[in-house]
Design brief:
The complex is a heterotetramer, with two copies of chain A and two copies of chain B. Chain A is an alpha+beta fold. In chain A, 30% of the residues lie in helices and 38% in strands. The chains are: A alpha+beta, B alpha+beta. Strand 2 (32-39) of chain A pairs antiparallel with strand 2 of chain C.
């Protein structure tokens, strides 16, 4: 299991590939990998967005993500999990979050990766402030429910 | 007792501070910590609280050395 | 949208990365990517597995996959889809299937990628024959329901 | 009429052929095609059928030039 907070842009494919290579004990053991990647869009709520600042609470963010992953591991037969989340100044098209779950069977991978994403969205202390093309700044106020 | 108070995101901006170091007696709960640090300001609606990086309610007790944080609903992911 | 049948091993990360780069019109537009990868395990039903042959019905396989993806596009607001499926001789730890779905919002990406995987498993004409360590060969007889 | 018949996977192995080219009249349905191509063999349980690469039932009509396929339940993905 690994949880990473990235102050610099990250390449999700490189992160997954490197993690999967480093976790040699899982080779040949997993049948299913479910991955979610959240990416910054260049528009939101009808406005053009130039960039975003992602604030977090160092220490609490990692602690909450570990609790979420531990809860997932308790609920599903998970072989491994990787969570990467960007912080700092983010540009459109930058990956913001990566959740990867390795399991034996696909249903568990889908369920667990979605659970981790939903819990991350509702409990992990990150906050987004958008910088609009108009130069106005605005804090996002609420995450939507991804099960709807 | 000594309590470190931290503020994040839009709350930090509206308060104009990122942290306070309270040295005071008579702080029993998280709500007391807010009022001691911000005597003229009601806690805004929807603000979340944590003690030592765990979510808690405003009536949660605090003790010497705790880190208490206040912040708006999270918007990561 | 792209659907590929691969007679040779493929690198899922390279496939997604290359596809995302080639589909330039989606940059900045998608907020969510849900990816599923099925990988060959080195054991199944209690036996050590040395390898596998993946047979398909050229023409019908592509046609059925296109129908499945078209059904997904009708049901969810999908920006793009990539489906890659291996055929031929497969070794443990080789990726077998890749489904990637790009959407604006995460719930749609999760739902659509899972739908495509389940439909692929139940309708796309592929057949697996395992070669066991004991040298015995056996055809797999049935896919399990991934929603259970 | 002329019908191409194709077999896949374990069915192909048990029959020992991957395809037949039928030239015969009186083939009205997919079931007729099976029996004409395999006169001494009942269609095994669970075998699926396709005409021109679309799934069909055994009572589905066939016409000259069709490609009819028989195969076991699929196990891809």
């Amino acid at each position: 299991m690994d949880i990473k907070i990235c102050p610099e842009p990250f390449d999700p494919w490189q992160e997954i590939k490197a993690y999967q290579h480093s976790a040699k004990n899982i080779a040949g053991k997993f049948g299913a990998t479910s991955i979610f990647i959240g990416t910054m869009r260049d528009f939101n709520e009808g406005d053009d967005v130039k960039g975003m600042t992602l604030e977090h609470y160092p220490g609490m963010t990692e602690k909450q993500l570990e609790k979420i992953v531990t809860e997932a591991i308790r609920q599903w037969p998970i072989i491994d999990v990787l969570v990467v989340h960007r912080v700092g100044d983010v540009l459109p098209n930058d990956p913001i979050v990566l959740v990867a779950v390795w399991t034996s069977h696909r249903g568990d991978a889908f369920d667990a990766s979605r659970f981790i994403m939903e819990e991350l969205k509702s409990r992990a202390p990150f906050w987004k402030k958008e910088l609009l093309k108009s130069q106005a700044e605005r804090w996002l106020v609420k995450n939507t429910d991804g099960y709807l | 007792m000594s309590i470190k108070v931290r503020y994040f995101a839009s709350l930090k901006e509206s308060i104009g501070r990122s942290e306070d170091n309270l040295e005071s007696s008579g702080l029993a709960t998280v709500g007391d910590v807010w009022h001691s640090a911000n005597p003229n300001k009601a806690l805004p609606d929807n603000i979340l609280a944590a003690v030592n990086m765990e979510y808690v309610g405003l009536s949660n007790p605090v003790k010497d050395g705790d880190e208490v944080a206040f912040f708006p609903p999270v918007t990561g992911g």
